[in-house]
Amino acid sequence: MELRHLRYFSAVAENQGFSRTARALHVSQSAISEQISDLEREIGTALLIRERHKIRLTPQGEVFLAEAKKVLEDAARAVDLTQRAGRGEIGTLRIGFFNGGTGSLVPKLIRDFRRKHPGVRVTVTDMVPTQQAKALAEGALDIGFTRPLDPEYEQQLRTELLYMDPLVAVVPRHHRLARSVVDLRSLACERFVLVSRETSSALFDKIIAACSQAGFSPQIVSTASVWSSVVLLVEAGEGIAILPSNLQQRGKSGLAFCPLRPPGASIELVLAWSPAREGPLQTAFLQLAREARKRLRHDDRGD
Question: Which pTM does this prediction carry?
Answer without folding.
Answer: 0.72
